[in-house]
Design brief:
elongated; binds fe (ii) ion; 76% helix; 4 helices; mainly alpha; Four Helix Bundle (Hemerythrin (Met), subunit A)
Length: 131
């Protein structure tokens, strides 16, 4: 079963952002699968890097839209994006040092909880403002 399912209420109403949200959900579910199956470490490490860049690129797009529309809740929305990127970087470090395998952190669960929360709060608020 997929960890995170796309729901219509996640829609921001900006085609590019909605498309990226769907792609990110696919990536996260794929990553979860990779971790569950225990695919080789170099492959997982590479995939982690890919996920980090895909998420960073998505945040950059959303932040550009927010700046262009002079969105008032931009600072706190951006802050939430940065907190997640920091968290992913920490997990990547844990993975490199072998601490991840020891069960210190669960990336699949972290991302699912974060996105579920972020979509329904910050991104939904942005949707209402753009609408
Ligand atoms: Fe988003
Ligand atoms: Fe966002």
């Amino acid at each position: 079963m997929a960890l995170l399912e796309w729901r219509n209420e996640f829609s921001i109403g900006v085609a590019e952002v909605d498309y990226e949200h769907r792609e990110l959900i696919k990536l996260i579910n794929h990553l979860h699968q990779t971790l569950v199956e225990g695919t080789s470490d170099p492959q997982t490490a590479e995939f982690l890097g890919e996920i980090h860049s895909a998420i960073a690129a998505h945040f950059a797009l959303e932040e550009k839209i927010m700046r262009e529309s002079r969105y008032s809740a931009y600072p706190e929305h951006k802050e939430d994006h940065e907190a997640l990127l920091d968290e992913i970087r920490e997990i990547m470090d844990d993975f490199d040092s072998g601490a991840y395998a020891a069960g210190k952190s669960d990336l699949g669960a972290t991302l699912t909880a974060w996105f579920g929360q972020h979509f329904q709060t910050h991104d939904a608020k942005l949707h209402r403002a753009l609408g």
